[in-house]
Amino acid sequence: MDMVMKFGASSAVVIFTKSSCCISHTIDTLIRNFGANPIVYELDTHPNGKQMEKALIELGCHPSVPAIFIGKELVGGANEIMSLNVRGNFALSTVYNMHEEHVYVYLVAIL
């Protein structure tokens, strides 16, 4: 479970998928349409995929994929993401870092 939480916190948006899951592909596309660039871990091709899938199930993901982390928090699966989208509870947050002179854009889920 620690590995999943570590990977889930590694980026603003992280998606755990399987390459054969069409719903995972749909959720990835939806999130990218908001301008986010998620890190995607395909469990069926990852060396520790079976352990990560077991950990996602223990965290309450049924089915195990897709599982989406936003802002280092487990938001849930496809049902939760689609519900947030339908209710209009996704927003882009822009942060300007003066020291690096960069603008960062984050996808925010308003729960």
UniProtKB/TrEMBL annotation:
Keywords: Cytoplasm, Redox-active center
PANTHER family reported for this sequence: GLUTAREDOXIN
InterPro entries, alphabetized: GlrX-like_pln_2, Glutaredoxin, Glutaredoxin_subgr, Thioredoxin-like_sf
Family indicated by similarity: Belongs to the glutaredoxin family. CC-type subfamily.
Domain of life of the source: Eukaryota
This protein's GO CC annotations: cytoplasm
NCBIfam families: GlrX-like_plant
CDD domains in UniProt: GRX_GRXh_1_2_like
Localization: Cytoplasm
Annotated Pfam families: Glutaredoxin
Keyword DNA-binding: no
Domain Glutaredoxin positions: 13-75
Organism: Solanum verrucosum
Protein name: Glutaredoxin domain-containing protein
